[in-house]
Design a protein that fits this description.
Blueprint: E1 2-4, H1 10-19, E2 24-28, E3 42-48, E4 57-59, H2 66-72, E5 76-79, H3 99-104, E6 109-113, H4 114-119, H5 122-139, E7 145-148, H6 160-170, H7 174-177
Parallel strand pairs: 1-2, 2-3, 3-4, 4-5, 5-6, 6-7
């Protein structure tokens, strides 16, 4: 599954996702939109955490405490939590997740923001990659894990097998990745 930001081009996203062998696609909206139905692919919707829209999932806000968000809305997608500018501890990374938050997020999902990794350079990128790998280890087998591109253009979608390959590098269990 990939999370994308459509701009009235949902049909093009669905056509491209079918070509790239996606099983499901999640559209991110910040305003109310009519339901999108496709017989070829599973289509879901998500919205920002603080919105009152009725969607399948809500994206967490990294600036607000994760526990508070999980108490208010159960179907939460944890995203961009490792990119915060907090410093690491002496013997472990301060990645934004711990085993208690993962247990509370049992109905949610954890997605890696591919955009935030690719826009950083050097030591900052290495730190974010280390935090992502720790979060994947914490989430493995407990909640579904995926990679989101947040593409606004259907031609910028990544191939499903490319995302699976990146997932293997991060330590995904492949049975959980394909079922999202």
């Amino acid at each position: 599954m990939d999370i994308v930001i459509p701009n009235g081009n949902e049909k093009e996203f669905i056509e491209e996702a079918v070509k790239l062998r996606y099983k499901s696609l999640c559209f991110f909206y910040d305003k109310k939109v009519e339901g999108i139905v496709s017989s070829q692919i599973k289509v879901m919707t998500c919205s920002p955490f603080n919105s009152n829209l009725k969607t399948d999932f809500y994206l967490c806000d990294p600036k607000i405490d994760l526990r508070e968000q999980l108490k208010r809305k159960k179907k939460l997608i944890l995203i961009s939590i490792e990119g915060d500018m907090h410093s690491d501890f002496l013997r472990q990374r301060n990645s934004g997740l711990n085993h208690i938050i993962v247990k509370e997020a049992s109905l949610g999902m954890y997605f890696i923001d591919f955009r935030s990794i690719s826009k950083n350079k050097g030591r900052r990128r290495a730190t974010i990659l280390g935090r992502v790998m720790q979060n994947v280890r914490l989430c493995r087998g407990k909640i579904p894990i995926g990679i989101a591109t947040f593409s606004t253009n259907p031609k910028k979608l990544r191939r499903y097998h490319d995302l699976v390959g990146i997932g293997r590098v991060f330590g995904f269990v492949m049975g959980g990745f394909g079922d999202i």
